[in-house]
Design goal:
Blueprint: H1 4-14, E1 20-21, E2 36-43, E3 46-55, H2 61-65, E4 71-78, E5 88-96, E6 99-108, E7 112-119, E8 126-128, E9 130-132, E10 137-139, E11 146-150, E12 157-167, E13 182-189, E14 191-199, E15 202-210, E16 216-221, E17 226-232, H3 237-242, E18 247-254, E19 263-268, E20 271-272, E21 278-281, E22 287-294, H4 296-309, E23 319-327
Parallel strand pairs: 1-2, 6-10, 7-11
Antiparallel strand pairs: 2-3, 3-4, 4-7, 5-6, 5-12, 8-11, 9-10, 12-13, 14-15, 15-18, 16-17, 17-23, 18-22, 19-20, 19-23, 21-22
Bound molecules: copper (II) ion.
Length: about 350
Amino acid sequence: MKDIGLIVSILFTIFPMLFVTTTFTYIPTFGDGLFMEELSASMAGRDISLLIKMSPPVVTTETLKGGQTPLIQFRLSDTATNETLKHVTYLIEIEKNGKRLLLDTFHSHSGNLGIKMRPSSAEHITINGEQDPILAAYTGDMEHPVSATGPIFAEGGLYHFIVTIETIDFDRTFLPTDKQPVYEGWLSVGYTLDKDLQINGASYPIQTLSYYDILKNFTYDSPKNELQFAMPFDWNLDRLKKVNVFVHEEISIPNPSPLAANGYEGTVNNINLSPNLLMLDRTNSTKDVVHFMLTKPVILDLAQKVADNSKNNQNMTNEMIFTLSPSKNAVNPGSMVGPNSMNMSMNMPMNNGSGGGGM
Ligand SMILES: [Cu+2]
C-alpha cells in the first residue's frame, strides 16, 4: 500500500486532537478513536497518563488477512515529567459492540506492556506469556510482548479498551480498589471493501477503506457520474457531544476513469461538504485516493442538519450516506501534490468542540 505514508502523516497531524483528558479518576473517558490514545487521570493529586498505541498504525481487515499481528503498547507515565511508571499491573478489558472479548491481568516491570494480537478463528482467546504467580498476571514488555490468540482484532470496527491500574511502583502493593485509576480508550481496525464498477462497458476497480464501520450499498449513479455508499451511524446529538468521534473514509478512484478529476466533491446525507473536508492523495499516478476526513465539529454540524432535515419525517436515519463525484471547480487539500511527492501539509480544524481534546 503506497499511501500508508500519507495516512500516517495525516493521522499524526490529527492525533493531538484525539488526546482525551479527564481530571477526575472515576469519570470514564469516551471516544471513537484511531490508532493511539493518550488518556489522563488523577490519583491522590498525581496526574497519571495512559498511552494505548497500536503498531503499525494502519490495521485493516485486509492487512490482518495477510497475517499482520498488531502490537498494542500500554504505557503509564507521570503526566508532569513524562517518566514511565514501573511495576504496573494492568487489568485490561477489551470489548467490541458491547461484547467482552478479553478480561485479564497483565504486569510490566518496566512499565511498558506489549500485547501482540494474533487474530484466529479459535472460539476463545488464549493468552501466552510468563505468569507471575502472586499477581496472577501475565508479565511482558515491548521486547517480549504477551500474545493474545483468538477472536480479537479479527474484524473491522472499534475496539473498546477499559484499563484499571492495580499496582504502580511496587509489585506487591495493590492500590485500594477505590483508588485504582480507570481509563477508557478506543482503537479502530479499518474495513476494506473492493468493488468493480462497470462504466460504459469498461470495468474500474474501486478500493475503499472505512475506519469507522463497514460500508454498504455501494453503487454508481451513471447519470450523475457519482459514487454512493452508506455506513451505519448513530446520529444522536447527545451521544455525539460526549464521544471523541472521527470518521475517516478512503476511496481509491482509478486514473484515468470517468470518475477521475482534478477535484472532487461529496455529500453526507444530502448535505454538501466543503471541498477542504476531502483530502486528495495523488502520490500514485494510477489512482486518486480521496479521504473523507470528518472531525467532531464537522460531524456535530452535520448531525444538527440531519436532525433538522428529519423533523418532517418520522424516523431519524441510522446511516451516514455518502456521495462522491468529480468536480470542475473543487480544490481539495493535497490536490496540488504530484506523483512521488509524499509531503503534504494539511490544515485540519483542531478545535474539537466540547469535552474533547485539542486542549
Ligand atoms: Cu514489576
